[in-house]
Amino acid sequence: MAFAVLEYGAECWLLPGWKQCGAGGGMGYVSWLGVALIILGEGIRKTGMVTARSNFTHNIRVQQSDAHSLVTHGIYRYIRHPGYLGWYVWCIGTQVLLCNPASCVAFAVVAWRFFRGRIQYEEYFLRRFFGAEYDEYAARTPTWIPLIP
């Protein structure tokens, strides 16, 4: 985040017209695209949280509880990990909003690496908890995060 703030400040100072930081500026099309991505990402994430209810946690469950069930309805019918996809889209959107090209790429790469490892770890336990039912669900439902099936 510190890099993003530094990039924004440096580019605002060096290229004020590009960032719309000068007098009479205002948001350009790229910034509005960023706002749309932020809203879309937040909407996907929150819809996943509401749909999964108590099955949604911020900590990966390594032991199955009696109340834990596999959620495959609602948004989960179309997106296997809406919480992760939503956060991924949101975080890229923040950098698009700020017109930060270097941070946009950096955030996309760092977040992708984080989610690749986290999804592999979480799905290991989901397969242990739900077996073939999870395998079938995962086979038909993409993550929509690039290069993470």
TrEMBL record:
Ranges that cross the membrane: 87-112
Bilayer disposition of the protein: Multi-pass membrane protein
Coiled coil (UniProt feature): none
Top-level enzyme category: transferase
UniProt keyword list: Endoplasmic reticulum, Membrane, Methyltransferase, S-adenosyl-L-methionine, Transferase, Transmembrane, Transmembrane helix
Catalytic activity: [protein]-C-terminal S-[(2E,6E)-farnesyl]-L-cysteine + S-adenosyl-L-methionine = [protein]-C-terminal S-[(2E,6E)-farnesyl]-L-cysteine methyl ester + S-adenosyl-L-homocysteine
Family: Belongs to the class VI-like SAM-binding methyltransferase superfamily. Isoprenylcysteine carboxyl methyltransferase family.
Protein name: Protein-S-isoprenylcysteine O-methyltransferase
